[in-house]
């Protein structure tokens, strides 16, 4: 293939892409003469060159297309059908060009079908009557559906209405397809030059004459930037050489730093500057406007809009934003995919939009801009937003997260599930999307170039995807760290912060079942050691001190423990050898200033390892809560800070949820703080008088609920979850505390939730529940509410009992007749089914030991009638619910020699 | 290096050249006492490997990466590649500072360094000293050897450079995610 042909191929395919875009613009704005002229000129150029190079097939096609466009210039109305036809012709041209590129000659075949249709459309005033024949088999299928005979696209109608002079006397456009041939003439208002082949120069001269010529800003016309074509390989080579120069410069600087000889320094300084400038200059040659990646999108959206029967407007902002060629290549396909997704799933059907009071035409907005060292790309639609409820459901169904986890997650976190492979909530799979394939690929692609993707979605308002990617791949900022014997580079994009850890300092690594974790601002951070990941050390015990590099990849946050952190350095990323590319932990390698080769750690690879290994995140809450229910000996406690920095704890089994709320959400009603929580009002109670509910920032809450009631306990900070043997040492004098215990070597107050519940709801104590406890060593607690059982157990344990719990009278009787020796029973009087009185009555009837077993009854309200009934059943004491000290006192009395006695 | 060939090569080799006209040049390298030959047109460099950065989790043949005049070179240990016992020259390699020499090879645009114990002279050898690979050789060696040349007093095993570098792809990766 000769150079001329090669150049022609490159140029033509660029031209065709431009024509694609321009045509779509033109269709929407058929009066814009500048666009038309532009298209005409490009097609004409292609035609001319083909003739010159002896490519008859291409020439004939281009000629037919040009003729039709010439007719547009002469005033033929521009219809959707004719634009579709020209687009189909362009596709054919591209297919032929592709073959030409491979084979070096034009492929055999006939284009008579298209040419005929084009000519027919150009000649015949019979509008929209061009049944374009399907393309011959060797060509790639054309994406869009050809309009059927007599069918007119909605755009066509709309364009016709827009273009038609005078007021419309027709109703609003009907939904597609419209079985009416629209013949409305849309005269191009500008005087049109006679159909002589417009040489670029002639055009230029004409431009000022055209009355309707667009504003001068229509710069894509003949005003040319001076450019030359350079082979990409040449540029790549230049880039490599500059990278080497940068490295050499770094080495020189390193040497100069060690030598006192100052005669070096000035020229070296200069070399350094020149190198930096050269580097920047070469980087610039690799830069391309992002618009290049967007070029195909207007066409894609146009085709989709026809296919889906939706009206879609694509707005593109910041197309001139430049980024690295390589990066551009990688994001091109993801962007197209996401735009397709937005069109298909994001935007509602036209009828739905109208019903929702939105403009019938949906908008997809694509914007790009620079921000720091990264480029931000946003894809926003004004559609229905993601169905978060469906995603939550689906996530649980697919086992990606537990129900509890899903509920704790923020909407943003939930939305990110759509990036999981195979995840789709689309009710119907369309030909465009919904198969759950794609978003994971999008994310992977973006992550391979060190980018991040984020979602913001609002129900009914639309969804915005934000992609942040580095400007270039060739040079990245990296943190140089040491692990074991070797140094590694960690790309800085993934690094959130550095934490120094030391066994003797405030920040130290703790372990849960051997898995190292670090407390970091109220969160537990799973830790992996770099040496461990790399299989270098067996000495797990060594991980005590060093630095934790806090990294975030997608939803995952984790810490990487390294021995030492040196500095950050701009490194030139070199690809891994093919022999080592299977090591997912490394993204490449680089040569540092001192000449040493170091490996670049791939945070994505680390994240995958973290989630696979047992060191995975989210260890704390769920896993431990389960354990606590099984193992009696240990109790899992939630430790928080409340009031003057004191540590307090509450059994985790009582806790429904931990929340961080926006402090501004706290409302005050009648002097009591409340928040709207899951569609209801939830009262807030401070865990200690010293706690101030915050006015700004976030407020940590511990949510307790029983049935459908919930209260939020306001705490300063949630610290930790510990799983320890609960050994309550001192029964405190305060009603809000059960006592205190030593947890993790710290004196910690165990709070008495019973004290707080009535503060939230005066009547919490009433209602169907409560328990009885067996005492004198072993106590049987009977209550139908797990909540109260959990709440009272620590209280009773603190009073020196070993507690057996039963959830109802039947179970209690079974336990009483069983092996376990029960010394005292604490029973709730109000239980569904068999109540406390019935239970005691049966015990008394059963005779034997049970007849004389002391019983303390718990009641919501104590009336004379109840007291009488209790006396008859020889119930030792009748204690009001939540009267913790009363209960303990009553039990103490029974211990004393005194026998059963009515209260 | 090419000029070194005239002196050392065995007389037989020179004769062979006359006889057949098909003379091949080989760079000779040593691992322990064994002498190997590599086709000279594949050898780009001979250098002393220094500052090798080990690659954790890498296949055992790979010693690490090193910087050769600004290029990152993947260093491969010939001894381990051939499955020879590490006893003799292991001391240096264990620390990543291979004591021996390295042969710079290229394949698919990448540079590799074949770490050996020593580099000998370049030999011009004809077909008459060439023998097929003895069938009783270790299977690994059989796959990597192209033939054997009978020299005065010793044997030269000709290695297949592409074969030497082919281990990464045909062997299942150890820890691929």
TrEMBL record, chain A:
GO biological processes: chemotaxis
Sequence ranges assigned to domain CheW-like in this UniProt record: 475-612, 634-762
Low complexity bias (residue ranges): 201-219
Phosphohistidine: residues bearing it: 44
Keyword Endoplasmic reticulum annotated: no
UniProt region (Disordered), positions on chain: 195-224
Histidine kinase domain span: 200-473
A Pfam family per the record: H-kinase_dim
Protein name: Chemotaxis protein CheA
Organism of this sequence: Methylobacterium symbioticum
High-level lineage: Bacteria, Pseudomonadati, Pseudomonadota, Alphaproteobacteria, Hyphomicrobiales
UniProtKB/TrEMBL annotation, chain B:
PROSITE patterns registered for this protein in UniProt: CHEW
Annotated GO biological process: chemotaxis; signal transduction
GO cellular component: cytosol
Pfam assignment, any one: CheW
Domain CheW-like: 23-170
Alphabetized InterPro entries for the sequence: CheW, CheW-like_dom_sf, CheW-lke_dom
Cited SUPFAM superfamilies: CheW-like
Gene3D superfamilies in alphabetical order: CheA-289, Domain 4, SH3 Domains
Alphabetized PANTHER family for the sequence: CHEMOTAXIS PROTEIN CHEW, CHEMOTAXIS SENSOR HISTIDINE KINASE-RELATED
Protein name: Chemotaxis protein CheW
Source species: Methylobacterium symbioticum
